[in-house]
Design brief:
A five-stranded mixed beta sheet has the order 2-1-3-10-4, sandwiched between helices. The protein has a five-stranded mixed beta sheet with strand order 7-6-8-5-9, sandwiched between helices. The chain is α/β, with parallel strands linked by helices. About 45% of the residues lie in helices and about 20% in strands.
């Protein structure tokens, strides 16, 4: 209970900071203009655009705005979050492709972008991008209805699945939850049936009513539901335990080497001068290791010391994640 109250307090702080940055974008940049050493963006970008594919107020938007609070100070330039919704990232990708390769346009990335590219749903290819900074890597729980005693542990879940395929709620075919459960089912050797509801909220409603057996949730999504004993986390699909959930086993501890994470990061177009890539990477990571963004990460049970990463780590991870996305989509028969 105490940990959850702390998370709510951190969440309130993040929301307050989000509102503050939305109201004071220009003034924050201007007040530090003379104190900070000029960057490539100072006087060149008017403003720096961070392109998102999701709704304003959602996770991608909130993360981008929290990142921008300190990054604008580091760059000495204003930052504007620009929404280009549609096509599971396709519109955001196609818009980014029209922008100059000058570091003034940054694209926010999640796994959804990788699936869209892998399925050829946009004009963008993975090699069109250079990853500059990772913001967060949030692992995933497999959760079941709290009252379902037959599936109350990972071992029971696997045993029941081998009798009859478990039904797992997903937001969309070929989406993050679908790919994640597919990878876990392969590693654990269990059959499953994906049930698409069109949104995560509808999946949770179906889980609560007993219409499906399980769902996949990030800790930040599951915390309140676990606290209220609506759902039970039976396994964390990761190689390391979360300090806030020491009793939840990891997939790796059970011999199933699979990680399912929601990764949020940023990229620029390939061809952007390397000096700009390096400067952006360094300053964005510094900004995200500050306590402002750090408190936001702690609210999601993430470690501010390890979550943000620079271009060397993130660009490599981005390309590796794309290959894994391709393999999973092929396994599901969604691409050839």
């Amino acid at each position: 209970m105490f940990n959850f109250k702390i998370k709510k307090a951190l969440g309130f702080f993040a929301l307050f900071a989000l509102v503050l940055t939305s109201l004071t974008d220009a003034s924050l940049a201007g007040s530090h203009e003379k104190k900070k050493k000029k960057s490539y963006a100072d006087g060149t970008c008017d403003p720096v655009q961070v392109v998102i594919h999701a709704s304003y107020g959602g996770g991608t938007d909130t993360t981008a705005r929290m990142m921008s609070i300190r990054t604008r100070r580091e760059l000495g330039a204003d930052i504007q979050v620009v929404g280009k919704r549609g096509g599971s990232g396709a519109k955001a990708q196609n818009y980014t492709l029209t922008r100059p390769k000058d570091g003034c346009t940054i694209m926010a990335l999640t796994e959804s972008h990788l699936y869209t590219m892998a399925r050829g749903k946009s004009n963008m290819k993975i090699d069109d991008l250079v990853g500059i900074a990772r913001a967060m890597e949030e692992p995933t729980f497999v959760v079941v209805n709290y009252k379902n005693k037959k599936l109350s542990t990972a071992k029971k879940f696997i045993k029941e699945a081998n009798k009859k395929p478990v039904s797992v709620g997903i937001a969309s075919i070929g989406g993050t939850e679908h790919i994640g459960m597919y990878n876990y089912s392969k590693a654990a050797g269990i059959p499953f049936k994906a049930v698409s509801f069109g949104s995560g909220a509808q999946s949770l409603q179906a889980l609560a009513s007993g219409k499906i057996d399980a769902a996949l949730l990030n800790p930040s999504e599951a915390a309140a539901l676990m606290e209220d004993k609506k759902v039970r986390a039976i396994v964390l699909l990761h190689d390391q335990k979360l300090a806030d959930y020491p009793k939840v086993p990891t997939s790796y501890s059970m011999g199933h080497e699979v990680k399912v994470v929601t990764t949020r990061g940023y990229a620029v177009l390939k061809g952007t001068p390397d000096a700009i890539v390096q400067e952006l990477s360094k300053k964005m990571v510094k900004a995200m290791k500050h306590e402002t963004f750090g408190n936001y990460l702690k609210g999601a049970s993430l470690d501010p010391k390890t979550s943000p990463a620079g271009t060397e780590v993130w660009d490599k991870q981005l390309k590796e994640n794309f290959k894994k996305a391709q393999a999973a989509l092929k396994g599901l028969g969604l691409i050839k």
